[in-house]
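Predict the 3D structure for this chain.
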Amino acid sequence: MERSRMSLPTGPDTLCFDKDEFMKEDFDVDHFVSDCRKRVQLEELRDDLELYYKLLKTAMVELINKDYADFVNLSTNLVGMDKVLNQLSVPLGQLREEVLSLRSSVSEGIRAVDERMSKQEDIRGKKMCVLRLIQVIRSVEKIEKILNSQSSKETSALEGHSPLLTGQILERIATEFNQLQFHAVQSKGMPLLDKVRPRIAGITAMLQQSLEGLLLEGLQTVDVDIVRHCLRTYATIDKTRDAEALVGQVLVKPYMDQVIIEQVVESHPNGLQIMYNKLLEFVPHHCRLLREVTGGAISSEKGNTVPGYDFLVNSVWPEIVRGLEENLPSLFNPGDPNAFHEVPVPPSF
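Done. Predicted structure below.
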């Protein structure tokens, strides 16, 4: 870069070479001489080089004479410069110490802020744990208060609340119970939570028992509102499978045990067909209310249905399969080809 900015003196036009060749980055003597020999003899090249050398010496002398005063002044100005530099070294050293001290103070300040932020974050986390525990205790006390109020009213008056009102109360309890469960999971591992767990377990058992009793009462009295409130409450606490299991155990199983009897089937020529007809009668006669409430029937009102249930698949069908396997094992015995061949496939419900 520096070589390209320098300007060489101009020589006569009779030179056998271009002066700018000397300024190229890839200048090579051998290549230069070889290139010039293509045009002139060596003696002429030598003469031209000597001529241009003299021009360069003259230009250099002129340059020195031109800037001589500056060279002299520069050497004069440098006298005593070492003392000046020594004088600057002391304040520069002090400035360096001050900068290092300031840097250390800033680093300590940043470290202190980080520690305070870490402590604040820890305090915030502990505060959230305390708030969750407070919410757990509030929910437990609120549910216990509702349950105790309900128990005292039922004790003072035999008639107590109507079943619908009881269903509404259970729905309120279930909503609060959901919040209780959420905060209890978030507070897992806290010592105070272990002290409250027996009360939570008591509330869970009481809620489960009340829901089971209310659901059975609603099915026995064919009360749509009770069954709807009850199933909605089961769904609120994410216990839909418990409701389906209860229906299967209490409502479906006794019926299947009365209908699927091996002696009855064998005592009649068409005993198997009669048994299947009775099984098919179960859903329209005993599950009509459940299917209307859960939207499984054509007459169900879409706005009042409780989604998330399938009593036909999860309650009725498992009990039919269980009853056939336990009470009529001979149906699946391939050792009797005639009887095995007569087993029809039950039509869809």
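Confidence is low (pLDDT under 50) at residues 155-165, 345-349.
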